[in-house]
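User: Need the bound-state model for zinc ion:
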Amino acid sequence: MASALTVAAGCGQSVSSEKAAEAAPTAGTETGATKTAAAHTHDGWWCSEHGVPEEVCGQCNSKLAADFQKKGDWCQQHDRPDSQCFACHPELEAKFAAQHEAKLGTKPPKPTM
Ligand SMILES: [Zn+2]
Ligand SMILES: [Zn+2]
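Assistant: Bound-state model below.
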């Protein structure tokens, strides 16, 4: 009885240590890659100044601003797209914030405008 237990324990130990050695490098690489990609996306994607994605920010991109003005989507009073004017439409801020939360899992910083 005693000798059988010793053999079983020794066998189990060697298997588990081999598994750990195999799993460790793979897990480390995956975590590093995900972290780097997320950091890059965060920087370029969101305009923290205006509280909207950069690709639709009519205050940072004059080409987009012209498009918004052509569509009649422009707030003269605040000099920004009406669909991005949180002063006139406070509910829009939460709508854009939800996009940030859906993509990055965090609330965006408060817009500074
Ligand atoms: Zn902007
Ligand atoms: Zn406005």
